[in-house]
From TrEMBL:
It holds the Pfam family TetR_N. This is TetR family transcriptional regulator. Residues 1-13 have a biased composition (Basic and acidic residues). It comes from Azospirillum brasilense. GO terms for molecular function: DNA binding. Residues 1-27, 211-244 are annotated as: Disordered. Residues 52-71 bind DNA. Residues 29-89 form the HTH tetR-type domain. Keywords: DNA-binding. InterPro entries: Homeodomain-like_sf, HTH_TetR.
Length: 244
């Protein structure tokens, strides 16, 4: 794949809007939606490794200078998909019930995130497969991935900014990596397989966190139950297996 090939600007006739529309109205959120949709559509059709940045810009109907300012690297187009899912979750800022555990809140937050990723699933399947051959893109994306996981914790009422928050973020990232594999192949109408996998992973993480807090004596059970890292398994590099 060569992102520099055929550098003459030409708008894709199937782009959702004319190229000049990218500079007028809509703002960054609209740009993210258009670029994410174009990138995942191309990835689904021809493979992520065969999808260049100029091809994405053309398919989205975005002039290269506008595209460059927000998406200078391939990881930035993947970050657009994550931002769309994150903002969909954060837009529903309903207060959690007093009887809900941190695990229950995280389950609800992450399932809402998977719902938001559904339109991009075919493309994400290709990204996850091909990203193993792009370690630099995966490494660059890991920063965006960590930020997403931190905000999902906050959306669930788990403080990711306190001491130990980095461990919580890494833990939720590890859960996401494993559940993402199920989500990408889940053909059930209600994502029941994804729900079962997420519930299992979060329960496993809760047991691990409880055992850790008892050994260390430094975390309360309430704090510990929010740490979603699986027992005996270190967090993997997020970008190595999950692009959501």
């Amino acid at each position: 794949m060569d992102d520099t090939a055929d550098t003459r600007w030409k708008t894709d006739p199937e782009a959702p809007e004319a190229a000049e529309g990218a500079t007028a109205g809509g703002g960054a959120d609209d740009l993210d939606r258009r670029v994410a949709a174009a990138a995942m559509r191309l990835a689904a059709g021809q493979g992520w490794r065969n999808t260049g940045l100029l091809a994405i810009a053309r398919a989205a109907g975005v002039p290269p200078d506008v595209f460059y300012r927000r998406f200078p690297n391939r990881s930035d187009t993947l970050a657009a998909v994550s931002r769309i899912a994150d903002t969909a979750v954060l837009a529903d800022d309903a207060p959690a019930g007093s009887d809900e555990s941190a695990r229950d809140r995280l389950f609800d937050v992450m399932m809402r995130r998977y719902d938001a990723l559904l339109p991009y699933r075919d493309g994400l399947r290709s990204v996850v497969r091909d990203l193993r051959r792009e370690p630099l893109t995966a490494l660059a994306f890991s920063r965006h991935f960590g930020r997403s996981m931190a905000w999902m914790l906050r959306a669930a009422g788990v403080e990711a900014d306190r001491t130990g928050g980095a461990l919580l973020v890494a833990g939720l990232g590890a859960v996401q990596v494993r559940v993402m594999r199920v989500f990408l192949e889940d053909d059930s109408a209600d994502l029941s397989r994804t729900m079962a996998a997420l519930d299992s992973e979060l329960r496993r993480a809760e047991r691990w966190a409880g055992a850790l807090s008892r050994r260390s004596g430094r975390a309360s059970p309430t704090e510990a139950q929010a740490a979603p890292q699986s027992a005996g398994e270190p967090a993997r590099e997020p970008g190595s297996a999950s692009a959501g």
